[in-house]
Structures are given as structure tokens and as C-alpha cells.
Specification:
The complex is a heterodimer. By secondary structure, chain A is an alpha/beta fold. Chain A is built from 9 helices and 6 strands, in the order αααββαβαβααβαβα. Helix content of chain A is 44%, strand content 12%. In chain B, helix 2 packs antiparallel against helix 3 and helix 4 crosses helix 5. The termini of chain B are far apart. The chains are: A alpha/beta, B alpha+beta. Bound molecules: zinc ion.
Chain lengths: 200, 238
């Protein structure tokens, strides 16, 4: 039995989706072609549309359809603060805190030495230029508290240390409302090591 | 021993992990009694998974797994604690150790002594980072793999002389040089003696040992550029 080649190439193309192996790709392709041709068309159109419209914001690097995203263009944001996050999702999480009114830079990834991802792959010179605009006074590193997030934080702090900006790292510890009984030992141990003295 | 299907309470470290399917991870670990093993951690990327945040590199864990294939299934993971997370330069050195183990250790080949040295080296890393710890780890790694350096005597069997100059030849060992600067990697007798003792307090010994280990490791990794070294060098260039 031979499969038509356009079906084969569809299966192959679907495999670029994260977490999709050959079997799932085949199931998706068959489902689209057999039961949902309208859906398939919509998928094709929106993919094409998104590819044409979506780019990276010239200042914060997040996805946007305009040159400068709304947040970066807003006069209400404090342009002296720049918060560096790994992904747009992380930026949204920070926004939900309502605790921060500065601007962002989205790395769209993290430093991962074992995967060969470093400054070149993340185009960190763009962040360096962004942080050296003369207006930014503090860069707040809000990467994950994983080894890769820490590696990224170290990389950024080393990179920025010769610039005239203050560099800070968000704190970690016991979650708000967290009872010690239910906090995982790793978090508790680190919170203990990073304990602070009560201010007078 | 590696024929057993079920392993429990095995001391191990995560070397590397990569996403698998929608919610799982394939984790490469270095365990005490089974060496380097690949494990499937089902659902480890789900938001509420107990494994999330636990399968972290450089942290002592106790793992349980089952299965016969190349990739086993992780059943249990417990954090052993007592060690701060690596930060800064030490973190990059940790990645370097992991890359060496991934490239050079064959899967499921037990190296208990190396495991203990690895754990000890990471403990040192969380204190003050010493470059000599890296060199001693490299030396132990090569030794464990059967590529041990000849450091007790020169290639002709004569005792090493502190003041002597040698060319270190892979497979043969240190060859005494009549004068400095001929072919091969030249290294002083003192460096070789210091390296044998694991005492690299002398800056010259440390520098020469670094060159020596680098060329040996390049040889055994087939000249492959190490990603962790490349990323670290990029950092220095910024
Ligand atoms: Zn923007």
C-alpha cells in the first residue's frame, strides 16, 4: 500500500508541533482530511495569516502585530525598570501580580549549555542594547528558578555588570499563604539559606 | 546486575532532561550502581506533577525505576537535599561535568567510584569553586574509563623529575624532552607529579594541567566541540 505523497508531507509537517510523534501526526492528518476539511482550511489560513502578521516587538521582543507593542508604547509604564522573563507566558504572569509597572524584555528561551543555547542563540546583544538605552536604571531578572533559569540569570548579570544599570534578581521562598508542612523540602531549604534579618 | 527489572532507592543525579510527548520527560541520570541510565518520567511536565521541580540537575536524588529496554520508566524520585543549588560560574562547571559524562560514559556501565567523586565535586562547587576540582574530576573520569594517565613514571619507566620537561603522548605517557618546545604537548615534571597527588596549588601546574586535560579530553571525545565550553566562552566574550 502506498500513501499519497501530499498526505505523507502533511504528516511530516505536523511533526514539527511540540510533543507530536509520527503516530499522532498521522492521526491528525487523517482526521483533518477525512472528517474536518473546513477545519483544515481554517488552520491553513490562520497559520498563513499569523506568519505574515506576527513579529517580535522592537523593544521587548514579545509577539506583536505592530512595530512596538502596546505595553512598550504606553506612557504609563515606568521606563526606568526593565524586567527580563523567559517567555510571553511569564510576562503575563508578572502582569497579573499588579505589582510591577515597568517594561519587559522577553528572551523567548533560556540559556541551556547542554543544548548549546547561549548568547548567540538568544541574541542577547539585543537585550544588551535595550538595557543600555540610557533610560533603564534597573534590570530585574525574573527567569525561572531552574538550573537553566539560574544560568540565564548569571549570564545576564555578567553581561550587564559593566553597564551603568542596577541588576536585581526576583526572590524565591515559601509561597504566600504557604504552610511549611506542605512546602517541598527543596524550596524550604533554599528559603532557609536565603533567610533575611528583620529590618530594625 | 543490570538484568534486574526493578531498581529502588538508587542514589542518582540528573545529567540532562528533554521534553517527551505532551507532558513527559526523558531524563538522563548518573546513578551509583547502574551508571548512566535513560528514564522516562511520565507526566513530569504536568503543572501539579510531584516530579515537577524535583528532577533538577546537581541535586542528590534517590530514584526507583523499572523496565528492560534502553529507556526505563521512572517510578519514584526522592530529593535527598542538603545541597544548595549551584549558581554562577559553578553552575557552568557543573554543566561541563555533565556533558563529559554524557559523551564519555557508556550507558549502564557502573562506576561507583566516579559517582562518589562526582557527588563530592558538586559539593565543593556549592562552596568556593576551585579549578583544581575540575582537573581532579577529569583525571578520575579518564582513569575510570580505562584511559588513565601515566603519572607515576615516564614512558621509558624512569621516575619523573620535578625539574624535567616532558611531552605527554596519549597511550605512551610522558616522554622526557632534552629541550623544551619540541613536538607534542610539553608539560613539566612538577605538573605531572602535582596532578598525580591531586594537589594543584601551584598556578603553573594548574595552567599546564588544564592544557593537558583539555587535549586528552579532545582526543577521547573525537575532537567534538563541547557545547558547555562554547557557551561559557561566549559569556567571556560579551
Ligand atoms: Zn514591546
Amino acid at each position: 500500500m502506498s500513501t499519497p505523497s501530499s498526505l505523507e508531507s502533511l504528516v511530516e509537517a505536523l511533526r514539527c508541533l511540540p510533543g507530536v510523534g509520527p503516530k499522532s501526526a498521522q492521526r491528525m492528518a487523517y482526521a483533518l482530511m477525512q472528517h474536518d476539511r473546513t477545519g483544515a482550511l481554517r488552520l491553513a489560513d490562520s497559520l498563513r495569516g499569523a506568519l505574515a502578521a506576527i513579529r517580535h516587538c522592537g523593544r521587548c521582543n514579545t509577539f506583536t502585530e505592530i512595530e512596538l507593542c502596546e505595553r512598550c508604547a504606553s506612557p504609563k509604564r515606568d521606563a526606568s525598570l526593565l524586567c527580563v522573563v523567559e517567555t510571553p507566558v511569564d510576562m503575563n504572569m508578572m502582569e497579573q501580580t499588579h505589582a510591577y509597572s515597568g517594561l519587559y524584555y522577553v528572551l523567548m528561551g533560556r540559556v541551556s549549555p547542554l543544548d548549546g543555547v547561549g548568547s548567540r542563540e538568544l541574541q542577547l546583544e539585543r537585550l544588551l542594547a535595550r538595557a543600555s538605552d540610557g533610560i533603564v536604571e534597573e534590570v530585574i531578572i525574573a527567569t525561572n528558578f531552574t538550573n537553566e533559569g539560574e544560568a540565564t540569570a548569571h549570564y545576564l548579570s555578567e553581561m550587564l555588570k559593566t553597564r551603568s544599570v542596577r541588576v536585581s534578581r526576583i526572590a524565591r521562598g515559601v509561597p504566600v499563604g504557604g504552610e511549611l508542612e506542605y512546602v517541598d523540602s527543596g524550596t524550604l531549604a533554599q528559603a532557609f539559606r536565603e533567610r533575611r534579618t528583620f529590618a530594625e | 546486575m543490570t538484568q534486574r527489572h526493578k531498581v529502588d532507592g538508587q542514589p542518582a543525579f540528573v545529567l540532562h532532561a528533554h521534553p517527551f510527548r505532551e507532558t513527559s520527560l526523558i531524563v538522563e541520570v548518573f546513578s551509583r550502581d547502574y551508571g548512566r541510565v535513560a528514564l522516562l518520567a511520565r507526566g513530569a511536565r504536568r503543572p501539579r506533577s510531584a516530579l515537577r521541580g524535583l528532577l533538577l540537575g546537581f541535586q542528590p536524588l534517590e530514584l526507583g525505576w523499572a523496565g528492560k529496554g534502553e529507556v526505563k520508566t521512572l517510578i519514584k524520585a526522592e530529593w535527598q537535599g542538603g545541597q544548595p543549588l549551584l549558581t554562577g560560574k559553578a553552575l557552568f562547571c557543573g554543566y561541563y561535568l555533565n556533558e563529559l559524562l554524557i559523551h564519555l560514559l557508556p550507558r549502564e556501565d557502573a562506576h561507583e567510584r566516579l559517582f562518589l567523586i562526582y557527588a563530592e565535586t558538586l559539593r565543593h562547587f556549592s562552596g568556593v569553586l576551585q579549578e583544581s576540582d575540575l582537573r581532579c574530576f577529569e583525571k578520575a573520569l579518564l582513569q575510570e574509563l580505562g584511559y588513565g594517565l601515566t603519572l607515576g613514571h615516564d614512558a621509558a619507566g624512569a621516575a619523573l623529575e620535578t625539574g624535567g620537561d616532558y611531552a605527554y603522548e596519549i597511550e605512551r605517557g610522558p616522554v622526557r624532552l632534552s629541550r623544551r618546545g619540541s613536538s607534542g604537548l610539553s608539560v613539566s615534571g612538577k605538573t605531572l607529579i602535582d596532578l598525580a597527588r591531586g594537589d594543584l596549588g601551584d598556578p603553573r601546574s594548574l595552567a599546564e594541567a588544564k592544557q593537558l586535560m583539555r587535549s586528552l579530553i579532545a582526543h577521547y571525545t573525537g575532537g567534538k566541540e563541547l557545547a558547555t565550553r562554547k557557551i561559557f566562552m561566549e559569556l567571556q566574550e560579551l
